[in-house]
Write a structure and sequence with these properties.
The protein is of the alpha+beta class and 141 residues long. The chain has a single domain, classed as 2,3-Dihydroxybiphenyl 1,2-Dioxygenase, domain 1 (Roll). The protein contains three helices and ten strands; from the N terminus they run αβαββββαβββββ. The chain has a six-stranded mixed beta sheet with strand order 5-10-9-8-7-6, covered by helices on one side. It is globular and about 45 Å long.
């Protein structure tokens, strides 16, 4: 079976949506801390594009519990990304969980998805202004 035969969702594009209780506060965070500007907006929503993929931040009365990674980026140099974002005031989480622990904010994680051809991943986590937990990862080959 090829991808064209596997259904509407397999042919669709994934689009992440992140809640914001204060959309203007979120806009400032994404601009000042992450260096991102919306590529489009509508009442109650901001659309961002990274690496050709879109994600939206939308006005919501609900809030994320911040107990799991809601969105992540994959980068080529995690140490450079951490240095850049730290310089902008992003605070990285310290994690002590079964299977991995951060050292200096970065966790070395054994294993990766076989289709990616990596043997592991280096990762960090931070929260946006709305409490959404974000991750950054670098495959280890």
């Amino acid at each position: 079976m090829n991808a064209d035969d596997s259904g509407a969702l397999a042919r669709g594009r994934v689009a992440t949506r992140l809640p914001a209780q204060d959309l203007e506060r979120a806009r400032r965070f994404y601009a000042e801390k992450l260096g991102l500007e919306p590529v489009d907006e509508r009442p109650g929503g901001l659309l961002y594009r990274c690496g050709g993929v879109d994600f939206a931040v939308f006005q919501s009365t609900g809030a994320s519990p911040g107990t799991f990674t809601q969105m992540g980026w994959e980068v080529e140099d995690i140490e450079a990304a951490v240095a850049e974002l730290s310089g902008r005031g992003v605070v990285f989480e310290e994690v002590d969980a079964p299977g991995f622990r951060t050292k200096g904010g970065i966790a070395d994680i054994e294993g990766n998805y076989p289709s990616k051809g990596a043997r592991g991943e280096r990762a960090v986590w931070f929260r946006d202004s709305e409490g959404n937990l974000m991750g950054i990862g670098q495959p280890v080959f």
